[in-house]
Design goal:
The complex is a heterodimer of chains A (245) and B (447). Chain A is mostly helical. Chain A has ten helices and four strands; from the N terminus they run ααββαβαβαααααα. Chain A folds into two domains: 40 residues, no CATH class; 137 residues, Cytochrome Bc1 Complex, Chain D, domain 2. In chain A, α6 packs across α10 and α9 crosses α10. Chain A is elongated and about 100 Å long. The termini of chain A are far apart. Chain B has 447 residues and is mainly α. Among the domains of chain B are: 112 residues, Orthogonal Bundle (Cytochrome Bc1 Complex, Chain D, domain 2); 87 residues, no CATH class. At the A-B interface, α1, α4, α6 and α7 of A face α7, α12 and β2 of B.
């Protein structure tokens, strides 16, 4: 009887020391001890975290299996109650070319058999530059350009961004040689062009028009400068009539 | 001096050869430089020498057309205007079905220009092949070794512990048997417990001190253990794709806000949707086999058929695991901190340009090393850490009269106009902190 007890005791000792030693290793997948999990874990679904909680219990079966989806086409971001900005809330009236389904994955978008890129040649920027707002627009444009475009198109718009310099990406055009009107620039950013994908899920319409102002400044440094009397300094318009898609 | 006819002829020959070869050399050099310049200006936005992009790869495309049975000269016609080539050549007809994207017409390019471009393209070595040979084997080896090491580490310790304990017990048993045999003082029926008791009684003092030390250390470790509850430093959940921030934002200089683009507009910084990945990865499919394997998962999620260079429409979700999770009873808004507060991402997330592995909650010690960060002491993502920063962080800079910029203009103006005393009290330490504008109010974050 005593021998048996001794054997059990020694086994228990071994087990305990193994357990203690084993618990010393850190598990990167564990976020550590939670004090009162019901205060930590949201019963409502939070962005990118869904514990599948129903009445205080987590359910493996209904746990979130979705992450980061593209906003559905034509959903409208809320800009506030300023009626002057209503036109920026409405969906873009131009449709993507039918081929964009295969080339740019635009299965959810409204598609057209026409080449609307060419039709966009005379579209005008509804976000007008004035002597008062031009400085703010170019400042915001620079901010947006640095975050969204500069890694390929380059800080100076010369097509030599850090991605091109590192050799990861090739074939980024220099803005000074790109022939496109502001309507065509908007279309390209919104739906994509060539190797560039659509940026409509990342930038709203006001931001894209701001970027168009900023990009036009690369092509003509006089763009958006105002004479002392407030009149615009004339700039030449270059249209892209040859390119398709 | 007289030079014979023969000699003169020889000299003339030499000269001629020299001039001719220089001309040839310069000429060929010129055509290559011209080819490169033309390729970069006209073709590179859609074509690459060795990789299919918006347009097919151009390496040895002339041979390809000739082998395919194209009419002679139709490739030049194609470049000038692909539609005229399609009308006359059945091979051009098949080429036009390669992609739904139609090629731009280049009527300004002459036959020599096109030849110069294609000659330059044919001279380009394939970077993918070279890279795959050099780095591919190495990286897979390294990954394999690392995995094994991590896995076996715990088991080595467990095995050592078992062996160690067995040896101690065996030695103890032998010692006891020897004692029973040699020492008549030991009673036959005495158990381990009886023996231990008499030993402890003999060494009362040391045993008591030992017990006290053990008791205090248990208390201390218990209290320290309590303070680690809710601390998530070094949390690094596994992800469906081994995403290296270092390559994306370090080597390639992509701004954090490009992929996490809702950071300026929303409570959540936002994970990139797969269409954002595809803005670059449509062209970049990885240099090493390990990279290609990971990027293939992106293609699967986006429904991109890399072979056919087209989207299939069959998409799949990538279920990322959230790394920086705050408790449910805390409200945190990214846009408030990034846009209004002007806080840099690295203040809380660390230097992602050096994060080779998947994202991780950085320890506060590591965050403090980064230049420009407010130095804090409490563990990352705890309340102490948040309010410590709120107490330190200045919301504006500048002289007292011009204090206040943008969002906080109004509050500064009101303070300056209505309560100068309070305002100057705030400015005792030379700055207005978040705390002084209500950053320590409970209801700012808990409601």
């Amino acid at each position: 009887m005593k021998i048996k007890f001794k054997a059990i005791a020694s086994l228990a000792l071994v087990a305990a020391s193994t357990f203690i030693l084993g618990s010393c290793t850190s598990n990167a997948d564990s976020s550590g001890t939670e004090y009162m999990p019901d205060m930590y874990r949201s019963p409502a679904i939070e962005p990118y975290v869904d514990y599948g909680e129903i009445r205080g219990k987590e359910n493996e079966g209904v746990k979130g299996r979705i992450s980061a989806l593209v906003p559905p086409a034509n959903t409208i971001p809320y800009y506030g109650t300023d009626s002057a900005k209503v036109h920026l809330m409405l969906p873009y009236f131009r449709k993507a070319n039918e081929a964009f389904k295969l080339t740019h994955g635009m299965y959810g978008s409204r598609l057209s058999a026409n080449d609307e890129y060419l039709m966009a040649v005379n579209d005008l920027n509804p976000y007008k530059l004035t002597a008062d707002n031009s400085e703010a627009i170019f400042k915001k444009g620079k901010e947006l350009f640095t975050a969204n475009c500069a890694h390929c198109h380059g800080e100076k718009g010369d097509g030599n961004g850090p991605m091109v310099v590192s050799g990861a990406y090739a074939g980024v055009p220099n803005y000074t040689t790109v022939l496109a009107t502001e309507g065509q620039m908007f279309y390209s950013i919104y739906y994509g062009k060539g190797a560039m994908g659509s940026h409509s899920s990342m930038l709203d319409k006001k931001e894209i028009w701001t970027l168009v102002h900023y990009v036009k400044k690369f092509q003509n440094s006089a763009y958006g400068t105002f004479a002392a009397d407030g009149s615009t300094v004339a700039t030449a318009v270059v249209a892209d009539t040859t390119k398709k898609l | 001096m007289k030079i014979s006819n023969n000699q003169m002829f020889k000299n003339f020959n030499k000269w001629c050869f020299g001039i001719l070869s220089t001309m040839l050399f310069v000429g060929s050099f010129n055509s290559n430089a011209q080819g490169e310049a033309l390729f970069k200006a006209k073709c590179a936005s859609c074509h690459q020498p060795h990789k299919n992009g918006t347009g097919p790869k151009l390496f040895q495309v002339r041979t390809k057309w000739a082998d395919g049975g194209a009419k002679e000269g139709s490739i030049y016609q194609w470049v000038n205007n692909w539609q005229t080539a399609v009308a006359t050549d059945p091979y051009a007809q098949t080429v036009s079905t390669w992609s739904p994207t139609a090629m731009q017409a280049f009527p300004e390019l002459k036959k020599e220009d096109i030849d110069a471009i294609l000659t330059w393209v044919d001279e380009q070595p394939d970077p993918a092949a070279a890279n795959a040979d050099a780095t591919g084997a190495m990286s897979t080896e390294a990954i394999g070794e690392e995995g094994v090491e991590e896995d076996s580490n715990t088991w080595v310790w467990v095995m050592l512990a078992i062996i160690f304990i067995t040896i101690i017990m065996a030695v103890g048993g032998v010692r006891r048997q020897l004692k029973i045999v040699t020492d008549e003082n030991v009673k036959q029926g005495e158990t381990y417990t009886d023996e231990f008791r008499s030993w402890a009684w003999k060494n009362k003092k040391s045993v008591m001190i030992g017990c006290l030390v053990i008791f205090i250390s248990l208390c201390v470790s218990g209290i320290l253990g309590l303070s680690t509850i809710g601390v998530v430093e070094e949390y690094q959940p596994s992800q469906p794709i081994a995403f290296p921030h270092a390559i994306h934002t370090g080597t390639n200089g992509i701004d954090c806000k490009y992929c996490h683009n809702s950071v300026t507009k929303s409570k959540s910084a936002g994970l990139p949707t797969v269409n954002v990945c595809m803005n670059c990865h449509k062209q970049i499919n990885g240099r090493t086999p390990a990279q290609q394997e990971q990027i293939a998962k992106v293609y699967e999620a986006a429904g991109w058929d890399a072979g056919g260079m087209k989207y299939t429409g069959k998409t799949k979700e990538i279920v990322w695991n959230k790394v920086h999770v705050l408790p449910d009873h805390v409200y945190f808004n990214h846009s408030q901190h990034v846009v209004v507060g002007g806080v840099d991402c690295k203040q809380c997330h660390g230097d992602m340009t050096k994060q080779v592995e998947t994202a991780q909650v950085k320890t506060v010690a590591e965050l403090n090393k980064i230049e420009g960060n407010v130095v804090l002491t409490r563990p990352t993502l705890t309340m102490g850490w948040c309010i410590e920063c709120h107490g330190e962080k200045e919301i504006t800079t500048g002289s007292i009269d011009t204090k206040g910029d943008g969002y906080y203009n109004e509050i500064h103006k009101r303070l300056l106009n209505n309560d100068k005393k309070l305002y100057s009290k705030y400015l005792d330490d030379g700055k207005v902190t978040v705390k002084e504008l209500g950053g320590w109010e409970c209801a700012k974050c808990h409601y």
